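Hi V.,

Quick status before I head out on leave. The structure for the redesign project is tokenized and pasted below; the design run finished overnight.
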């Protein structure tokens, strides 16, 4: 019931403002970041800011096409247009800006349930808990059958397209096959090791009012590989006309 309500709430999100603290395993080390972003879901528009790295990103296909405007407030300082799925924007990142927001999380959980033979039976409800100042339902997912199997690359497939096709974690697939910086087509017939599921274990805290995730931690066979904590969550609050325009006086493009 909780997961179904969460999925319905996510489907009804039209606008989102949120702050995120992330921890991601990059090879054998962990990288942490604090960022904030705004998302309009339909049509998709996004503004992202990482104050620690002094970085701003703006994505609005109506004004700027399929490229994202990226402004580093360090050398070389000027605004550049980059492919959100290209190697520059994806380097040392588990996800691209296309996955920011709750839609990707909700779809990944739904597909994990449908792919897992035991589905909901691998979820355990552990009661109510306070997380990041929110009253939450605490759920845990675990599948001890998580493993890696062989996959033969087909024509015009990338690591990302394979991950989407199989509903597995893109970064884990790349890391397992030494493809961390390979974002192009893979050689047809190549055999990859791919995980059978998106993760082996997950801890999920869902706000009991907003019914969206407040904290999400995912584990593979080695342990924690990524966690995300959300705060200052604002849903369906209207955006101003220039919210996704580079000329917005609050932006530095």
């Amino acid at each position: 019931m909780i997961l179904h309500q969460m999925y319905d709430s996510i489907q009804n999100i039209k606008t989102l403002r949120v702050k995120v603290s992330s921890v991601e395993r990059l090879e054998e080390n962990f990288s942490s970041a604090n960022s904030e972003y705004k998302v309009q879901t339909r049509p998709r528009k996004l503004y992202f800011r990482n104050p620690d790295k002094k970085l701003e990103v703006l994505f609005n296909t109506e004004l700027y096409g399929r490229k994202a405007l990226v402004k580093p407030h360090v050398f070389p300082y000027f605004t550049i247009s980059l492919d959100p799925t290209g190697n520059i924007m994806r380097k040392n990142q588990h996800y691209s800006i296309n996955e920011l927001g709750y839609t990707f999380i909700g779809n990944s959980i739904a597909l994990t349930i449908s792919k897992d033979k035991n589905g909901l039976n691998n979820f355990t409800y552990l009661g109510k808990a306070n997380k990041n100042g929110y009253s939450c339902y605490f759920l845990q997912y675990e599948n001890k059958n998580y493993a890696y199997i062989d996959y033969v690359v087909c024509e015009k497939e990338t690591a990302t397209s394979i991950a989407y096709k199989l509903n597995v974690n893109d970064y884990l697939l790349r890391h397992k096959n030494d493809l961390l910086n390979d974002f192009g087509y893979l050689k047809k017939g190549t055999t990859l090791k791919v995980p059978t599921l998106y993760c082996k274990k997950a801890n999920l805290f869902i706000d009991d009012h907003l019914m969206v995730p407040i904290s999400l931690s995912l584990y593979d066979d080695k342990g924690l590989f990524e966690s995300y904590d959300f705060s200052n969550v604002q849903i369906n609050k209207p955006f101003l006309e220039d919210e996704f325009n580079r000329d917005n006086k609050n932006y530095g493009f």
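Above is the designed sequence. The CA atoms of residues 58 and 176 lie 32 Å apart.

G. will cover questions while I'm gone.

Best,
W.
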